[in-house]
Amino acid sequence: MIVYCAGPIRGDQTYLKSYLEIIQYVENLGITALSEMNSKFTSSIPLTDKQIYTRDVKWIDGSDAMVAEVSGASLGVGFEIAYALFVKKIPVLALYNESVQKISSMISGCTNPNLTVKSYKDEDSLRKEVKAFLLKHKK
Fold it and tell me: Strands across the sheet with 2-6, in order?
């Protein structure tokens, strides 16, 4: 199974630690976690915006599912979720910290059956939600 992990890179990085935890936990489960923040896939040279876009779309195209940290605002994460849901039609788990008052209405209001939106309160509950989602969608 291959999972694309989405989280803010240039957007609000308040919950970066949670995003990194998602990547590490997916890898610990023996599943490939595609992400710019996964040290396995870090480029040794800076990439242009077009190269980043091309790489990330290719990664989503090759993924079986997506796990996204959506506690902070990020246009890129929103784009990636929409692409995964409406172009690739793969399951997406959108996770947000329960301390966040409101996440994007474009996520919380989306009725696409491939989208699962869950809150977490700490690393344990974050891992629990990721594991349950991946077990449900394992290929």
Answer: 32-34, 2-6, 65-69, 92-97, 115-120
Give the pTM: 0.91
Longest dimension (CA), the chain: 40
Strand stretches in 12-122, DSSP E? 32-34, 65-69, 92-97, 115-120
Residues 6+ apart with CB under 8 A from 46: none
- CB neighbour list of residue 41: distance below 8 Å, 6 or more residues apart: 34, 35
- What pLDDT digit, counting tens, does each position of 39-62 carry? 565 666 788 999 989 999 999 999
Residue 34 amino acid letter: L
